[in-house]
Amino acid sequence: MLKYIIITICVVGFVESFFWELWSNPIIPVREFNGHKVYRVVPETLEQLDVLKWLEADNDLDFWTDAAIYQNVDIMIQKDKVNEILNTFKEYEIQYQVMIEDVETLVAAERHAIENHKPSRRFDEIDWYSYYSYDEIIAWADSLDCGENVDISSQVYGSSSEGRDLKVYKFTNGSSDPNPRPSMWVDGTFHAREWISPATVTYFMNDLCRNPSNTFLNDVDIYVVPIVNPDYEFSTNFLVTWTECGEKQERITIHPLDASVLVYPNRNFEFKFGGNGTSNDKCSNNYRGPNAWSEPEVRSLAEYLISTTNSADWRAYITVHSYGQYILIPYSFDNETFPADFPEMENLATDMESAMKAIHGTPFTVGHSGSILGPTSGCADDWAYEVANITYSYTYELRDTGRFGFLLPAQYIIPTAEETLEGLKYAARFITL
Ligand code: ARG
Ligand code: ZN
User: Fold this and answer.
1) Quick check: pTM over 0.85?
2) Is 280 within a domain?
């Protein structure tokens, strides 16, 4: 009898722990990209551009760059769609080339790098030899100790849609003079698929913290948000989940290449909300959300910038994205409207570019966002310039120019971060001159 009771307890315990495991650690299948390819086309007529815009609305295709005339447009196409799409290209005489033969090979390499790296590291330590998750990055940032010369403090400025902390880290030399202090804002990870963004921004934080030669901290406070959109969490684990997207279909919404969890935060700001280059289709990469500020990640960031003006004299706003190697100057919302300060903004951008290029020879295209990449609205850079009145507002698009695109292998993190650091530091020094 006792034997049966014991067996029953064991079985119940086992079954229970099994379900507990499942509940706390849902098994989510890894998404595979076998046979997915990335093609590059360059629309040279308005008709060709229209064809691409129309393909962009097809949610089985994943546009890695927005379609714009005379620009490189990179499109990830799943295996079973390749023939059909190539026929469309041929029909409209759109020239194309293959950029990535097999997306899965690159994704698998990163997955591997992350897994192999794990045993050798502490949870709150990161290096720049692989990509890290939100939890790891925040644990690392929270444990940063910058010693005597630099004061680091953090603040939770909001909570994400899924309840994660929105965190900003402030670096200063501790002086409160003058008040408000000249200040610069740097943020990363609006978009899940732009893995190089948090990697680079954390490298910048590490340098601010540990490099004793950053004397600009005597004159400027630097605020850094490594992850604007923390609900990208699953993407670094290469896990997927399925969710209802629109009425017609289910679509993977959280995966390594997804733009965000449904809403594209960089289309959700109020300034020019809903304008060119945005979509009201939930399944689109350019989905702007139901209304401006619908996303807490976006609203809280804007509120923080606006509500801190007693202590921070905001002079520069730089949002770090990938890819394409650009330093983009507002406005983004159309291709012919230039801000009044454009000449000064362009001067600083050109100097940042020289500083960045000097490190490894990597060139960046400097110019007006809306005309270079085509219009897109409700963006952070336009809002920061126009509404928050931050003159030196930029979007950086880091490496590369498309060989790997979003799947930049981890070995390029350090060189990318090293060159970007120089652009950011140049801006920090410049704004107090
Ligand atoms: N990576 C940025 C985004 O997707 C690019 C913004 C500039 N793009 C443009 N089409 N002007 O939000
Ligand atoms: Zn982006």
Assistant:
1) yes
2) no
